[in-house]
Amino acid sequence: MGPMNGSGDLSSEMEVDAFRRLFPLWFHERHLLESIRPDGRSLGRARDTTLALGAVASADGSALAKIGCTTMLAAIKMEVMTPTVESPDEGCIAVEFHMPPICSAIVRPGRPAEVAPVVSKQLSDTLLRQVVMTFSGMIDLKDLSLVSGKAAWMAYLDIYCLDADGALFDTALLSAVAAFCHLKFPMVSLNDDGRVVVVSGESKGGKSGKEAVNKEQRKLNLISIPFSLTCTLHNNYILADPTAEEESIMETLVTVILDSSLRLVSFYKPGGPVLAFTSAVM
Amino acid sequence: MEVDRADGRTRNQLRPLACTRGTLNRAHGSATWSQGETKVLAAVFGPKAGTKKNENPEKACIEVIWKPKTGQIGKPEKEYEMILKTTLQSICLLTVNPNTTTSIIVQVVNDDGALLPCAINAACAALVDAGIPLKHLAVAICCCLPDGGYVILDPCKLEEQRTKAFAYLVFPNSLASVRRKGSLQVEVEPVEHGIITSVTRGVMPVEDYLRCLERGRAVSAKLSEFLRRSM
Question: Residue A84 gets which letter from DSSP?
Fold first, then answer.
């Protein structure tokens, strides 16, 4: 790397890695001047994404999503519960987002990351979004009902962050959506006591008292699938899909979520003024 | 075609605003901000020595604690804390007092819709009362989109629950015309057209979001007038 005016003769003696650690902002700005980023991507390019369905064999639906190095594992377990009195034909989804210490150096066992509950809440807002008059979420809770007023499905969605390298919400949303796509309802039948129990076998011919409530294993119907993109803004440069290093030095972070009919689900931008924003919406 | 809202306001009308500063005499700065029935009390303590563990010691650190009216602190409160923290970090001059922590405590007194904008306005007023150096003030507004496709401002709780989408927007304070008019233009758009924070809930088409933004900007001028008068 050639010498920079600001750092004087230090940079000509320093190695690239040391320069990167000590003056991260200058390091990245030098790259931005050439319209490129330290890992060789152009400003608007996202990292390679991979998705694997069915990563957890014991769960009813699961997926492993990787965007670059950021890895998230989502798993869904279904349980039968009695629905509430106010909404007797709706099920329930509980979303939990965990950031175990394996994912990054700043998370410690006793001190949870402060970004974890925020991502968790954003996820549940995006997936559920229950409104009285109109539905605009991905999943209609009425799909989760079994016997109206008596039994409904409760889906526990757990997302574990295995590696946190920027763009956490994007990866989490991708893995959650994929896990729901992969979800298959387990077979259930009505017990003699009138309770619904899960039937593990595949045989259709059961005992005379039991009757399968849902005869075939079905999949969940997704209304409109949301996609999200996180970008950072720095001095009029817009960088798509930042890594953790870029996120920590650039102040403003924008997350845009669109659904499959190109409507805006969320435009989330905490902090930091921006002048021309219309290009960011793309 | 003016739509009659439940309390008789027009679409662009805000609820009556009230701001008092110096409500708490032990805090370094405090303010109450109320928009209609929604009332938030904010207190500022600081700057105190030392920053938290992972924070940059060359800058001042801001810590936000959000106290709900009832119930325990859960995920929504943490999210509000984070949004407030990043918003206030962008308006404070962080390099003036390095290696210090400023704590802002927000207490919800009454929630009747548009809670987060009310809290941001209250926190801003409290920071001014405490004398923390700021670049500019922030004005926050809530716009919501009921089914008709038009934008209404500053909803009350019932309207917020019934609407299919809403957006909280925070804009910088419009600069007073002490300087000449021409110097307010920075590049293409004037400085007060930047967005500091935007949080949306619910699905809406992109054009509706842009309309919310325009409406929000127009109202932010009125709000900053009010803020300036009450200081």
Answer: P
Contact A217, A184 (CB under 8 A): yes
pLDDT at position B65 is 92
Chain B residues inside the 8 Å CB shell of A131: 162-164, 202
pLDDT per residue as tens digits for the range B62-74? 889 999 988 888 8
Inter-chain CB pairs, A–B, below 8 Å: 111
User: If pLDDT is split at 50, 70 and 90, which confidence band does A10 have?
Assistant: low
A128 to chain B: nearest residue by CA?
A: B202
Look at A274 and B186; give whichever has higher pLDDT: A274
- Which H or E run contains A237? strand A237-240
Q: State which residue of chain A sits closest to B186, comparing Cα positions.
A: A275
Closest Cβ–Cβ partner in B164, B167, B210 for A133: B164
The per-residue pLDDT for range A69-100, each reduced to its tens digit, is: 888 899 988 888 877 777 777 777 888 888 88
Residues of B within 8 A of A259 (CB-CB) are 203
Buried b (16+ CB within 10 A) or exposed e, A207-246: eeeeeebeeeeeebebeebbebbbbbbbeebbbbbbbbbb
pLDDT tier at A263, thresholds 50, 70, 90: low
Question: What ipTM does the predicted assembly reach?
Answer: 0.74
A94 touches chain B (CB under 8 A): no
What pLDDT is recorded for position B172? 76
Mutation for testing the B interface, residue in A275, A278, A282 having most B CBs under 10 Å: A275
Question: What is B173-192 written as a DSSP string?
Answer: PPPPTTS-GGGGEETTEEGG
Grouping H, G, I as helix, E, B as strand and the rest as coil, residue A34 is coil
Per-residue pLDDT, averaged over A236-246, amounts to 77
Rg (CA), chain A: 23
| Distance separating alpha carbons of residues B147 and B163, to the nearest angstrom | 7
Dist CA B137 CA B224 (whole Å):
8
End-to-end CA distance of chain B: 37
3-state secondary structure of A218: coil
DSSP A186: P
User: CA distances (Å), A178 to each of A73, A219, A229, B171, in order?
Assistant: 10, 12, 16, 36
Side-chain-side CA neighbours of residue B189 (13 Å): 14
pLDDT > 70? residue B160: yes
3-state DSSP of B45-110: EEEEECCCCCCCCCCCEEEEEEECCCCCCCHHHHHHHHHHHHHHHHHECCCCCCCEEEEEEEEEEE
